[in-house]
Amino acid sequence: MHRFVVTAAMIASLAATTAVGAAEIKLMHGGAFTQVIVGIVPNFEQQTGHKVKLERETVGALTKRIEGGEAFDMAILTPGAIEDLIKKGKLAAGSRVNLARVGVGVVVKAGAPQPDISTVEAFKRALLAAKSVAYIDPQAGGTSGIYVADLLDKLGIGAQIKPKAVLIHGGAVAEHIAKGEAEIGIHQISEILPVPGITLVGPLPREIQNFTTYAAVLGVGAKDNEVAKALIKAFTGPAAAEVVKAKGMEPAGS
After folding, report:
1. CA dihedral 133, 139, 140, 145 (to 10 degrees)
2. Number of neighbouring beta carbons within 10 Å of residue 28
3. Domain assignment of residue 113, given as a range
4. Which residues contact 223 (CB under 8 A, 6 or more apart)?
5. Whose CB among 108, 174, 205, 239 lies 3.0–4.6 Å from 195's, allowing a Cys bridge?
6. Among 73-87, 134-148, 206-220, where is mean pLDDT lowest?
């Protein structure tokens, strides 16, 4: 993978801040975007001398923290959450930049039989045949968990799956699959790929696929506004697009 290089224009825009001293900005982000952050932020820090403090939680949990008045410089959330928080005066209007989107996939433990999920009916049969099904607890505020719970009901199998559901309250569903805590898992693909000891069976069938877009936005009164703006630019360049693809996501406009 190509190393991310901060452009000359970005370095120039940060020159005044760097001359005074390295800044530390606080970035709050949803879990599905974590691997992209890991692929970009270290090089940003190395090139600029600034530091980025990361705060990872579900979008729902982060929304509550922001509504509660927690101070931060930048957030990466879903557009819906961002627009709601902008209306409440918690985020800087006009600063939202869509970064990437990710679909939902199915995961099993490495070496386990891979179920057929090529069609909606095959996907339903796979879930009904499984001894246990893991996904994010919708009560935790995770985007994929809310979608999956609603999807199961729409497919008419919610009642059958509920008794054998393994609800995950945070982190990666795939980690629990790797440990053998559930037979099959459903989560965002970018959260599945980095986990060892698992196999990504594939994305959900096209008819029931759900893409979640993640966007960057500035906090109201961010103490290091220019540094945060430069970091947003770092997430939108050509090198960032390579990282996005490698981490199981795709450009937001695709």
Report:
1. 40
2. 24
3. 104-208
4. 25, 71, 73
5. 174
6. 134-148
